[in-house]
Design a protein that fits this description.
Elements (H helix, E strand, L loop, with lengths): L2 H16 L4 H13 L7 H4 L13 H12 L2 H7 L8 H18 L2 E3 H8 L4 H13 L4 E6 L4 E7 L6
Antiparallel strand pairs: 1-3, 2-3
Helix pairs in contact: 2-4
C-alpha cells in the first residue's frame, strides 16, 4: 500500500472517531493520532467540527497541540512548550519529522547545520541516522545525503494533495 493511500485511510479513521467523541476522549484521540508512526497529515482531523467543543476547556491544550502538528515545527513546540501538553517520545519524533518535511517542501538543499539546529541534534551521525531511519524510510522525503557538502539534497516530499 502506498503512503498516500495509507494517509487517507488513517485520516478517515481519526476523523470518524473524532466526530463522536467528547472532552477527555478527544484529548486521548489527539495524542493517539499525533503519536501514530504512519500519520503525517492533521489538517482534516483539525477541521472536524466536534473538536471546537474542547476550545476553552481544560482540554484546549490538546487542540493547540493538534494545530501544532498540522502547521508547526519542533521550534514552534519549543517556543510554546509551556502552554502545550508534554510530548511523548513518539510525538517528539513525529514533530521533528514534520519539521524536516516543512523545510524540504520549500528548500531542495538543506544544510546539515540548519537541520541540526532545527532538530536539536548535536552531531552529523545522529542527524544522518534521523534523516535515513525516520524520514527517508518512512517515505515522507526522498533525497541524498551529501557528506562532503554537509547537506541533504531533497528529491521529493510526501504530497498531501494526493490524500
Amino acid at each position: 500500500m502506498d503512503i498516500e493511500r495509507k494517509q487517507a485511510e488513517l485520516i478517515e479513521q481519526y476523523v470518524n472517531q473524532a466526530e463522536s467523541l467528547t472532552g477527555p476522549s478527544l484529548a486521548g484521540l489527539i495524542v493517539e493520532a499525533t503519536s501514530h508512526p504512519s500519520l503525517f497529515a492533521f489538517s482534516e482531523i483539525l477541521s472536524v467540527p466536534n473538536l471546537s467543543k474542547i476550545e476553552g476547556t481544560q482540554y484546549s491544550r490538546y487542540l493547540d497541540m493538534l494545530r501544532l502538528f498540522a502547521h508547526g515545527t519542533w521550534s514552534d513546540y519549543k517556543r510554546n512548550a509551556d502552554s502545550l501538553p508534554a510530548l511523548v517520545p513518539d510525538q517528539v519524533r513525529k514533530i521533528k519529522q514534520l519539521s524536516v518535511l516543512t523545510l524540504a517542501e520549500t528548500n531542495k538543499v538543506l544544510p546539515y547545520d540548519q537541520l541540526m539546529q532545527e532538530l536539536d541534534v548535536s552531531n552529523v551521525r545522529e542527524l544522518e541516522d534521523f534523516l535515513i531511519n525516520e524520514c527517508m524510510y518512512s517515505g515522507i522525503v526522498r533525497g541524498k545525503l551529501d557528506q562532503l557538502r554537509r547537506c541533504f539534497e531533497v528529491r521529493n516530499t510526501l504530497s498531501f494533495n494526493a490524500v
